[in-house]
């Protein structure tokens, strides 16, 4: 199954659902940053939620940033998400030492920590952007986002995310599910969803089991009757470019740019969100310096 995201309505259109398969994009994140298993699971879960939150945006010009810091050994997790469901992100410590519940289950909460906050900033291209911040509940990512939706957006929400690492150290499966009550949802709808979540297998297990099927079929098997609204491919995608990096260099003081020209004959700039490296020659830096005084 390709990485994709499905939006749907269930329970006679009183509950909305987002589900995504993110195995490939989480694998790309691991490859780009050489993520160790716990770091890969933590970032992968956040990327999955970010993708689903991205498609909740109302305009293709909008984007959102997720920042998680529970003062655990992984440091900060940061993800940018876009209207089309594409995401990119990084962790401060990609080589954080793994912590296990047992021989097979990673203890993501232990490396993330819960002495800190989850912050979501939506860039709505308005004078005042929206920012919501909540105290981390466990550092396990899923329940932290459920708490965020309930507190910051006043939307009863269930969140299930998972990343399964294979015995070869690579990503075997990854995905996420968000279930949200719409304003006309009934108490019975809430109870039904609670029972579904309570009996649901881990998302990483479901993604592995349905890898030869479809997300639509998975939703049907979970909820029965489903009203599919959209199905779209999603990717690990960073909007960085050499032009953007040049704009960033142009913000530096003239003497700092001149110093790189005289001492280093150029420079290399690395994007935090995708680890792409951009080389600027002495001539490139001279053009940037000249453009500041045109």
Any key phrases for this structure?
294 residues, alpha+beta, 5-stranded antiparallel beta sheet, 29% strand
Largest sheet, spatial ordering of strands: 8-9-2-1-10
Dominant shape:
globular
Number of strands: 12
Mean pLDDT: 94
Report helical residue fraction.
25-40%
Secondary-structure element string: EEHHEEEHEEHEEHHHEHHEEH
Rg value: 21 Å
**How does the helix and strand content classify structurally?**
alpha+beta
Low-confidence residue ranges: none
Descriptive report:
With 294 residues, the protein is α+β, with helices and mostly antiparallel strands. The protein has ten helices and twelve strands. It has helices spanning 23-33, 37-54, 108-112, 142-152, 187-199, 203-209, 215-223, 242-250, 254-264, 282-291, and strands at 4-10, 15-21, 63-69, 76-82, 87-91, 117-123, 130-135, 157-165, 171-181, 226-233, 266-270, 277-281.
